[in-house]
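Hey, can you fold this one?
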Amino acid sequence: MRAFRYNFRMDSRGIRIFLTFVLSGACLVRPALSRGATTTPSPDFDEPTTREEAADPQADEARRATIDITEPPPPRPRSPEERTEFFYPYRRAITARFGPTYATKAVDGQNNFTLIGALYTFPSQKLKSLEAGADLVSDGSGALHFAKRIEYSRSRFRPYVKYGGGVRVIPKEQLVSFIKIGNYQARGAVGFEQLVLLPQSLRLEFEATVSTEGAQAILTLGYLWGW
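Sure. Predicted structure:
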């Protein structure tokens, strides 16, 4: 009986040892197998594919029929002045002029004289220019003058104003004319130029002079040549 119990104990101890080794090996092998096994994604062949909608000519025609195309307004009719707009191209000019002169101070018993002269307009890119001139008067005197001119147009009709100064030259006084204060004048004028045929224009000007010796009113008609 004792021998049976001893053998049973030995057998059960061996069985436990055997089971311990088996379970330990299984625990070691299972994580390695779990790490080595990878899953591969599989495509979903059941997913429906999208197709582009085929163009429908009738639908396109109906869509175009709903679009309201606005026609542009007709061009504004131009007036005769706009159609004949002209730009005067010249920047310099020479003018020959003549006309009557009235002086407040009588010379040899008369106040009315005749003037002839020439003007030179210096070139300028703007509507402001400089002008120099020389005149001879029928009483035997003359004048040298210089003015700044302001123009209001570069078309066929060109009104302007100008202002400046001058000196009256009396031959019998010779160089004393440039020393005598009474011979110096303040001058101002208004006028216009009218194109006749390129590069020729007519010029009408009214000018006034003031000095300590008196005043003058001058009306001249001129012929202008531009270039």
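Helices lie at 2-36, 57-65, 80-83. Let me know if you want another pass with a different chain boundary.
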